[in-house]
Design goal:
The protein has eight helices and eight strands. By secondary structure, the protein is α/β, with parallel strands linked by helices. It has a three-stranded mixed beta sheet, covered by helices on one side. Strands 4-6-5 form a three-stranded mixed beta sheet, covered by helices on one side. The chain has a two-stranded antiparallel sheet with strand order 7-8.
Length: 243
């Protein structure tokens, strides 16, 4: 009879890594039984759920080929987060180094394209055409060299996620909140321009942090002709009670 997946050698090895990290963190409670499951997530998702006598760990199958030291570093990070501790700088450094390698980012983006679902509305909204704005900005600021698979409006009128560039799907999404006749054209232009800069300046690494907006990114962002006015209008919108 086949053994349950969490008893397979690979998962058992990771479970032992969690046990070692648990002891290393000096957590004052009985050692739980760690059960590890690999799932076909669209990204590098990792989660842990604790019961009185066991802990279930669900990891992206993209982690299955990671070195044992990387998995043990991740175990320490997850447990530290769960129990309100601080993971060691060595663990954070090791995991982030692996996470930011070109090979890892390539696999993650491939998985997101294959497994993830990207829902966005067409670029032509009620008041603004995002594709036309993208093309105009591309010629004016990027010599027409930037490319996206799709650009469109979000399905929800989000006031928290204003825009998003997804490198895995090659898409730019702008919150439908801005598709309003009350919004100046330059504000929507600035939002599209900001997301286009994420294509030109991908996420970088600074020590234990991932840097989304590098100094070069910020310098390029300030070159937008109405940068100050756009930021001021966005702050005004964010502070309004009704929109």
């Amino acid at each position: 009879m086949a053994q349950p997946p969490h008893h397979e050698p690979a998962q058992l090895s990771v479970a032992l890594a969690f046990e070692r990290a648990f002891r290393r963190l000096g957590i004052r409670r009985p050692l739980p039984e760690f059960r590890v499951e690999y799932r076909a997530f669209a990204g590098l998702r990792a989660a842990i759920r604790l019961w009185p006598e066991r802990a279930v760990v669900r990891l992206s199958d993209l982690l299955a080929d990671a070195a044992p030291a990387v998995l043990e570093a991740l175990a320490e990070i997850l447990l530290a987060r769960l129990f309100g501790r601080h993971a060691s700088p060595e663990a954070r450094e090791l995991y982030l180094t692996w996470n930011m390698t070109a090979a890892t980012r390539h696999r993650v983006e491939e998985a997101r394209r294959a497994r993830g679902r990207k829902r966005l509305l067409p670029p032509q909204g009620c008041n603004f055409d995002l594709e036309s704005i993208f093309n105009q900005l591309n010629q004016s600021f990027f010599q027409g060299e930037l490319a996206v698979t799709r650009i469109g409006w979000s399905s929800a009128r989000s006031r928290t996620l204003l825009g998003h560039h997804d490198p895995g799907h090659g898409t730019i999404t702008i919150s439908r909140w801005f598709d309003s006749e009350s919004v100046p054209h330059y504000v929507v232009e600035y939002l599209v321009y900001h997301e286009m800069l994420h294509i030109q300046y991908p996420t970088e690494r600074n020590g234990h942090r991932r840097v989304l907006h590098s100094p070069a990114f910020r310098a390029a962002e300030r070159k937008f002709p109405l940068y100050q006015e756009a930021c001021q209008h966005l702050r005004k919108m964010a502070g309004s009670e009704v929109w």
